[in-house]
Amino acid sequence: MIPTLLAxxxxxxxxxxxxxxxxxxxxxxxxxxxxxxxxxxxxxxxFVDAPYPAEAQAAGVEAHVILDIEIDxxxxxxxxxxxxxxxxxxxxxxxTAARQFVFxxxxxxxxxxxxxxxxxxxxxxxxxxxTAEVAPAEAPVNVTGxxxxxxxxxxxxxxxxxxxxxxxxxxxxxxxTETDELGAFSLRGVPDGTWTLRxxxxxxxxxxxxxxxxxxxxxxxxxWMRTVQTEDALYAYYDKDKNEVTQRTISMETVKRIPGTFxxxxxxxxxxxxxxxxxxxxxLLIIRGSNPEDSGVYVDGIRIPYIYHLGGFESVINPDLVxxxxxxxxxxxxxxxxxxxxxxxxTTVQKWPDRNKVTWNTDALDTGAMIMGRFGKxxxxxIGLAGRRSYIDALLPPIxxxxxxxxxTIAPRWYDYQAKYELLGHRDTFSVLLFGFEDVLQAQSxxxxxxxxxxxxxxxxxxxxxxxxLLIKWEHPFxxxxxxxxxxxxxxxxxxxxxxxxxxxxxxxxxGEVRAELPWTPNPHIRIVPGIDFVGGVSPFEVxxxxxxxxFAETDPLAEREPFTLKDSQTGWGPDPYLFATIRPLKxxxxxxxxxxxxxxxxxxxxxxxxxxLDPRVSTKFSIRDDMRVxxxxxxxxxxxxxxxxxxxxxxxxxxxxxxxxxxxxxxxQDIGQAIHGDIEGFYKQFSNLIVGxxxxxxxxxxxxxNDGSGRSYGVEIMLRHDPIxxxxxxxxxxxxxxxxxxxxTEDWYNFDYDQTHNLVGVAGYKLPWQLExxxxxxxxxxxxxxxxxxGIYDVDQDSYSGYSTAPYNSERLPPYWALSARIDKxxxxxxxxxxxxxxxxxxxxxxxxxFEIYNYDYTEKAYISSLPFIPSxxxxxxxxx
Amino acid sequence: MSSKASxxxxxxxxxxxxxxxxxxxxxxxxxxxxxxxxxxEPAEPRPGDVVTFTSLVVSPQSPVGLxxxxxxSDLSTCTPDPELLxxxxxxxxxxxxEELAAAFAALQEAGMIGVEPYLSPTxxxxxxxxxxxTEADKLxxxxxxxxxxxxxxxxxxxxxxxxxxxxxxxxxKRVPVSLATTPNxxxxxxxxxxxxxxxxxxAVVTLVAGQTYxxxxxxxxxxxxxxxxxxxxGAEETRTEExxxxxxxxxxxxxxxxxxWPYTEIEYTPEKDEAAPDQSLWVVVRDRRGGMTWAEQxxxxx
Lengths: 882, 302
Description:
The complex is a heterodimer. By secondary structure, chain A is mainly β. Chain A has 3 domains: 2-123, TonB (TolA/TonB C-terminal domain), CATH 3.30.2420; 141-225, Sandwich (Immunoglobulin-like), CATH 2.60.40; 347-881, Beta Barrel (Maltoporin, Chain A), CATH 2.40.170.20. Chain A is 4% helix and 52% strand. In chain A, a hairpin with a 3-residue loop joins strand 29 and strand 30 (503-517). The radius of gyration of chain A is 32 Å and the shape is globular. Chain B has 2 domains: 34-177, Immunoglobulin-like (Sandwich); 189-301, Immunoglobulin-like. Chain B is built from 5 helices and 20 strands. Chain B has helices spanning 3-17, 82-86, 97-103, 105-109, 135-140; strands spanning 34-41, 50-58, 64-72, 112-116, 122-124, 142-154, 157-161, 169-177, 189-194, 197-199, 204-207, 213-219, 226-230, 236-240, 244-249, 253-254, 258-260, 266-269, 278-286, 292-301. In chain B, strands 3, 4, 6, 7 and 8 form a 5-stranded antiparallel β-sheet that branches. A 5-stranded antiparallel β-sheet of chain B has the order 10-9-12-18-16, with no helix packed on it. In chain B, strands 11-20-19-15-17 form a 5-stranded mixed β-sheet, with no helix packed on it. In chain B, strand 9 (189-194) and strand 10 (197-199) form a beta hairpin. The longest helix of chain B is centred in the first third of the chain and has 15 residues, at 3-17. The chains are: A mainly beta, B mainly beta. The interface between A and B is large, with 63 and 57 residues.
């Protein structure tokens, strides 16, 4: 008996306690409302084998019984009905077996939900062994074989197989069959001769092979089919079904092939509306005119301090363990906090493959591997392991030597690791994620070489930063309406900067975080989620300077240097409570969604800082038609001071408040046919209480920082995308924006450091024959603001010039940036594995754009530090399944 | 990646690139009007002391017509005002020092302490200069600021001074005034050597273009001073100066343009300039406490 999961029909799933949308049920129930889409299909974790009905066995017949199976929110089968009875006892046997099935429940945005699925329970007749007395009733089987998928060796079931015999067709006879569950097929009575054997399935692909049959001999054939890529949705898109009105979810695979991303989908955020171009492609998240530190990066809901490795080339999470990246440029809900910019939420693997999978990828920067699989009696334990290590530290020194470097060494290096375990087949969801990374940059000058004129900065330079996290996720459905999500995590962050023998800045943080939610869905129209986002920790730090920081106020090179050492520790808490609701007021629950919420932003450092603010927020999206939607959001966002801003060595309180941002957005989404989607959104952000340096600072008795800064940013984002339907995918993203700051209410506005008036990005990919794929990326942005210097005055004691500007801060701009990158992939599909060879051509056209202005020693000449030049980055990715 | 990490990455990239590859002029190449050093004598005066100043001003293109000196207590009040110079009448070259002093009276009211080549810079430290300080702070002292503006003549006209701000070289130096028990003194250069051979003062050394030479500097025995210092815990320490040397050239290259005591040696590769085979090397020594001295070594490159 072979089960086949036919289809999960969208109309057969319903959420909450509303009536099922099953046509049979609708005869006695009110008209069903269109349910929200499923985020996870039900998964059969315990299959029960039905006995072959005696009546059918006697008759020598086989059948497929189509069942409607109702599964509740715990994964239990509550009802089974037969769609079309087939008799012979098949129906009863299938129903009895299906009632014993156990599923992992389906989920939508609200959590586990009941669903109805249609299930094909197949009975394949196995004839008793023939006896000498029984003569074959049909022509003998003379063609047998097995059909497998190239690259994975997966057995392909239910694929039509045919032998093309032209003469037979003219006689009205065909030789066709279908592969069984084990990919096997057999054909009887195929005439002698040379024919074409063909296996073809519209959704998979086709394969042909010439066969020659000789009288009296059977032929056994092995067919290998190169299937159509059926990877996940392959693009960045606006997801209208999520609660966030401006959520751009990035799925995998094709986005890995966007030029310049080094195969990292998280870097694709840089190509979406609202994200300004980061200098040098460093990957800084500059979203809607906010500082990089204003935006939050989350991994499975837990915030981490860094998302990119050194240089910003690659993210700290192995792409093969990432299932989705949610990019929220603004207007996000109260479940995210402590930030005024945007959010990037990385979701690690959630869909575990049936077969074990190994990938190995290598490019110009690093090499990494991932293994993923399921084990246990019922394959209920899923585990994924990944690791990556750069080797640029090995390559760079000889390159520098070749280029005439006189012994100066620089050694950047990084590694990252991830391990995830998930328990499958249980009504509860339980997973453990362990991940971390470390980046190191060491620079060492030859011995006896002076680095500048400062005795205290002589010697090596090094910086290290690292993060390690252990995250547990547990979800428990109490019933169909109420569930619990509990995500505790624990970890350590570390950052250091050491210059010479005298400069040491070392900070580590031991952090504990808990995110807990209690989603309650009393009916399909409302969902209420109370939650807490708690973070607390201890942060020991060490500061060693060659002179007392009191001297910061007056940088007198003749002042006697008094070495300064500070070792201390801060303990801080941020128990942020929040509450939000998802209201669907219309009968068609998907047509209008309103999400009000409120969050308390709390920061408490005993004896030093205490601040509390309430953040009310609301967002809404309304579907005018199926292809047309309006959306809007408004809300307050508060952000605690940065850790270094919250410290005082004495007992005095730090006189700082949370920074504040009032954010509003209004947008329109339009579908143009099936493949093309447009989105336009305007935004306005008003910043207040921004923390700036204290202009009155004279000594350690004064506050280093004050809340006197303010800012504003506004603009319009436009995106037009073509889904990867067919051979083409791509999008055009354009952001027109303005962002300004001022350091005190009485001062003039100036351009924000990362202000970019225009930011235009075009991305396109096309699948060619022979498993070739080409893609390109174009970007144009306005040059970054810069401050011109017109005069240099020589400080004789310091032996350096100080630049003086007669123009306002950031009043000029660098030349515009534009560059074109390209990439070509060639996939080779072998029987057991696939190999993707690629060549990433980063900035082959106009790559050397100005990134910074640099002046000569006396400020009489200036030049540009350019962005990355043309970098050809070859690499490969090998995938194995077994 | 955080903004800090990005900054460090960029900083590293720039340090590897260097200004040289960007086509920017290098600070150790003297190809324009420069004030390379300013020294006060005494280096650390007391209230009432008369301080004289000297400077190392180099102008390879056009002669320096005027060097003005202003003294003030704070750099922000030391802004040079070219309009003041416009008030001068008569030919300074024909005046006696007394007449010059009278002519410069208005400028002196504004803090001017010298106009070279007519009036050597001299500053008398006010006797009440440290009166606002505590007795302990008087030992640490209070710096005064001396602002030096070197004004070249307009090319081809030795009588006309340049008026464009970009043509004028402006520098400033702090002069620590204190009642220190171990006041600072300017260091003194004992000798310059080339490949280990001590060069006689004033001698011109002949070197071969493209060949690398080791240039070293010896300070006089008493140049590296020990001094008393009260740390923040109130304890008295004895510290030793750690001077550093800044090297300058006209043509050629150094392996490094700054050296730190006691690693004073540099490698110098001369380059021939057909128009001017006679060149100079300069070295300026700073003791980090305000003391300064310098030397010039004439070179003939073949």
